[in-house]
């Protein structure tokens, strides 16, 4: 599970957000929605220990997950604890074969039989990755590269997947297939923090959702309730200014 409390992050002097609280309970798919520049990727960086490398830092608040203080843990330690990010823009190793990309995801797995079993499962989820095993990843289509990026993350048998806009730049049909796979992965026991600008798609698979705007979480609730919220519509249409947003209570408190 992941638990974020009143987190504030800056790049240099520039504040990205000042008050973000959210939680991802075991077994859940939680969507994090928000417009361009809202700070979604930045939050995922803070959770996976790669914020410092990007010139960012946590200036207030806490983030815990799988028994670790995530704001004070190294990226490799966080991956070994089971929190694994599928980065925005896919970022597969283009020169390496599909097979070797998957193998790279299993570097932290000590048990060979377990790695073999996981690979068989990944091939079942995405048969194209078996068909193209020997090809350089760069030759895959955008949607197939997204599948590879997810497959690579799954190779380390994560307990929590942090997914950054898996539908970005991908044909709607393929994006829906990927969401179905997210649901399957979740059924198999992995919880998911799903960052998306495609709110409809994300809310179709998520249990719970948060909306980030103007440096804070401005709405949250069960996915089906948030789907019909006026605030979500106004924010996505750019009609809302942060100061006009009611803060609301914390249903977990
Ligand atoms: N490494 C960085 N250094 C300085 N500023 C950054 C850095 N990365 C992001 N920012 C800024 O921080 C803010 C939040 O960016 P972030 O990438 O987290 O937004 P996002 O919600 O993921 O947006 P998108 O939906 O476009 O991916 C933006 O104003 C962005 O310009
Ligand atoms: Mg982003």
Automatic annotation (TrEMBL):
InterPro entries: AAA+_ATPase, ABC_transporter-like_ATP-bd, ABC_transporter-like_CS, BCAA_Transport_ATP-bd_LivF, P-loop_NTPase. It comes from the Bacteria. Signal peptide: none annotated. The keyword Amino-acid biosynthesis does not apply. Keywords: Amino-acid transport, ATP-binding, Nucleotide-binding, Transport. SMART domains: AAA (SM00382). The keyword Nucleotide-binding applies. It holds the Pfam family ABC_tran. One of its GO terms (molecular function) is ATP binding. One of its GO terms (biological process) is L-amino acid transport. Belongs to the ABC transporter superfamily. This is Branched-chain amino acid transport ATP-binding protein LivF. It comes from Nocardioides simplex.
């Amino acid at each position: 599970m992941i638990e974020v409390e009143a987190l504030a992050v800056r790049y240099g002097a520039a504040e990205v957000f000042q008050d973000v609280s959210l939680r991802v309970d075991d077994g859940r798919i939680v969507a994090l929605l928000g417009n361009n520049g809202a700070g979604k990727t930045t939050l995922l960086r803070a959770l996976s220990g790669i914020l410092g490398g990007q010139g960012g830092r946590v200036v207030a608040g806490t983030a815990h997950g799988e028994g670790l203080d995530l704001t004070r843990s190294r990226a490799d330690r966080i991956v070994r604890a089971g929190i694994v990010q599928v980065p925005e823009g896919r970022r597969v190793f283009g020169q390496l074969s599909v097979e070797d990309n998957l193998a790279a995801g299993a570097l932290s797995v000590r048990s060979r039989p377990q790695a073999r079993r996981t690979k068989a499962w990944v091939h079942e989820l995405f048969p194209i990755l078996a068909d193209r095993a020997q090809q350089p990843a760069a030759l895959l289509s955008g949607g197939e590269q997204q599948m590879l990026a997810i497959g690579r993350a799954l190779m380390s048998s994560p307990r929590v997947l942090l997914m950054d806009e898996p539908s970005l730049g991908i044909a709607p049909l393929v994006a829906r297939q990927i969401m179905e796979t997210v649901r399957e992965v979740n059924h198999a026991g992995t919880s998911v923090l799903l960052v998306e600008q495609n709110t409809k798609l994300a809310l179709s698979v998520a249990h719970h959702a948060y909306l980030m705007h103007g440096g804070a979480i401005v709405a949250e609730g069960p996915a089906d309730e948030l789907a019909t919220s006026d605030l979500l519509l106004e924010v996505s249409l750019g009609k809302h200014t942060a100061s006009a947003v009611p803060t609301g209570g914390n249903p977990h408190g």
